[in-house]
């Protein structure tokens, strides 16, 4: 069931006031003012916070949500790229590496202030990867993966969820990965991190049943972004073929507007997930052979 956002966004009551962006210790981050949309410019469903918005999936999600009429608060680690996305979406920005102590809490406070006290939608898209044999993985990279891919999302949900529950509406969208559902060779820790997000989404959804707040898990496979360059190993498989970041952004939009609990991108990936669930021994033999 889609969730209606019953509260008129509070920024509409003060359309002339700008939002001050706060420097957060990220090299190159500069404070600047972002104008809030004026009355009548667009019908806004509410305020959305998007993490990982400086590139890739997060940037595409920001652009799609802006087209859908959302007022945006964006977070990313690259101040220059984030500023470009903000310019295209009339967003307030908070450049920060969310793995740093206290960054997530400061981001939540900034978003709540920009939204007038309640964020209506959280899209947790920040993430990094690492590929290679687990025995060669530096111990620090294990911690870094969970510090970026898992913990900030949980802490942001913890900070923003009470306002949604109190209002009786809102949605949390966690951007996972098929690696977290199927497990992928040479991505053991990344698979574990994304599996943690999948379990968190399910458990939280059960807990919030009847509150009016929804939880969506968006499960992309291979996405054509700089992710694979940064993880240390290029994508060399012929299947599944990479999809565009815009397709994932479409899935996020559908999750919000249609109240979807889980969406695979592309949709056929639900089939191997079902095989793994119904015939795990068969699936494991095939995965061990074909990767």
Explain what you see.
- The protein starts with 17 loop residues before the first strand and ends with a helix.
- The chain is α/β, with parallel strands linked by helices and 291 residues long.
- The chain is globular, with a radius of gyration of 19 Å.
- A seven-stranded parallel β-sheet has the order 5-4-3-6-7-8-9, sandwiched between helices. A two-stranded antiparallel sheet has the order 1-2.
- It has eleven helices and nine strands.
Summary keywords:
291 residues, 11 helices, globular, seven-stranded parallel beta sheet
The rounded distance between the terminal residues' Cα atoms is 37 Å
Beta-strand level of the residues, as a percent range? 5-15%
Number of helices: 11
Instruction: Please give the number of β-strands.
Output: 9
Structural class: alpha/beta
Stretches where pLDDT is under 50 for at least 5 consecutive residues are 1-28, 30-42
Give the overall shape: globular
Q: Cα-atom Rg, whole angstroms?
A: 19 Å
User: What's the main sheet like?
Assistant: 7 strands, parallel
Helix percentage range: 40-55%
What is the average per-residue confidence, as pLDDT, rounded to a whole number?
83
Order of helices and strands: EEEHEHEHEHHEHHEHHEHH
Please state how the strands of the largest beta sheet are arranged side by side.
Answer: 5-4-3-6-7-8-9
Write the layout of secondary structure elements.
Elements: E1 18-20, E2 33-35, E3 47-51, H1 56-67, E4 71-76, H2 79-89, E5 92-95, H3 103-115, E6 121-124, H4 139-149, H5 151-167, E7 170-175, H6 178-182, H7 188-207, E8 213-220, H8 227-230, H9 245-258, E9 262-265, H10 270-278, H11 280-290
Parallel strand pairs: 3-4, 3-6, 4-5, 6-7, 7-8, 8-9
Antiparallel strand pairs: 1-2
Helix pairs in contact: 1-2, 1-9, 3-5, 4-7, 10-11
């Amino acid at each position: 069931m889609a969730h209606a956002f019953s509260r008129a966004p509070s920024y509409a009551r003060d359309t002339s006031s700008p939002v001050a962006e706060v420097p957060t210790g990220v090299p190159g981050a500069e404070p600047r003012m972002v104008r809030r949309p004026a009355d009548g410019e667009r019908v806004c469903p509410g305020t959305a916070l998007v993490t990982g918005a400086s590139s890739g999936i997060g940037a595409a999600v920001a652009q799609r949500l802006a087209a859908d009429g959302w007022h945006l608060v964006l977070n990313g680690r690259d101040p220059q790229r984030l500023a470009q996305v903000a310019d295209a979406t009339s967003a307030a920005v908070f450049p920060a590496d969310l793995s740093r102590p206290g960054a997530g809490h400061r981001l939540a406070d900034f978003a709540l202030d920009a939204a007038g006290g309640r964020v209506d939608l959280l899209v947790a898209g920040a993430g990094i990867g690492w590929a290679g044999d687990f025995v060669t993985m530096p111990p620090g990279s294990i911690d870094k993966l969970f510090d970026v891919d898992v913990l900030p999302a949980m802490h942001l949900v913890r900070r923003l969820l009470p306002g949604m529950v109190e209002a009786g509406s809102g949605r949390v969208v966690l951007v996972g990965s098929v690696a977290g559902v199927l497990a992928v060779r040479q991505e053991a820790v990344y698979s574990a991190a994304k599996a943690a997000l999948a379990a968190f989404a399910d458990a939280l959804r059960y807990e919030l049943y009847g509150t009016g707040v929804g939880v969506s898990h968006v499960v992309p496979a291979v996405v054509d972004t700089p992710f694979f360059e940064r993880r240390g190993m290029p994508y060399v498989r012929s299947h599944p073929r990479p999809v565009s970041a815009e397709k994932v952004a479409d899935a996020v939009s559908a999750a919000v507007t249609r109240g979807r609990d889980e969406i695979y991108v592309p949709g056929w990936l639900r089939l191997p997930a079902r095989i793994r669930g119904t015939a795990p021994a068969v699936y494991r033999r095939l995965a061990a052979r074909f990767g």
